[in-house]
Amino acid sequence: MGSTGQITSFEVVTEDGTKLGPFDLPDASRMHIFPVSVRAERLSFEVLDSSGGNTGAVEIAAFTRE
After folding, report:
1. pLDDT per residue over 1-57, tens digit each?
2. How far is the C-alpha of 6 from the C-alpha of 27, rounded, in Å?
3. pLDDT value, residue 56
4. Alpha-carbon span 24 to 9, nearest angstrom
5. CA–CA separation, 15 vs 2, rounded Å?
6. Distances 50 to 6, 19, 29, 42, 61 between C-alpha atoms, Å
7. What is the pLDDT of residue 1?
8. Is 56:47 a contact under the CB 8 Å cutoff?
């Protein structure tokens, strides 16, 4: 697939099974922000839909709020 594989939808799952999303990614031309409110120690990112091939994330960031 070269560099054409793209994730178009994903969800985030916490260690206790709480699911956040699904989140849609309309394109890969810019950063996308998905605000959520959850307390967790571990997050798993699960691809729900992609264009196929070897897809992945360039960068993922999770920020806390006090």
Report:
1. 456 688 999 999 999 999 999 999 998 888 899 999 999 999 999 999 998 888 878
2. 8
3. 79
4. 4
5. 33
6. 6, 19, 16, 23, 20
7. 43
8. no
Strand partners, 45: 12
Buried b / exposed e along 46-60 (16+ C-beta atoms within 10 A): eeeebeeeebeeeee
**Which residue type is seen at 10?**
F
Structure-token pair, residue 54: 């070897």
Give the DSSP per-residue string, 8-66.
Answer: EEEEEEETT--EEEEEE---SSS----------S-EEEEEEEESSSS---S--------
Residue for token pair 């594989």: 5
Phi, psi of 59 (to 5 degrees): -155, 135
Q: Are 44 and 12 in contact (CB under 8 A)?
A: yes
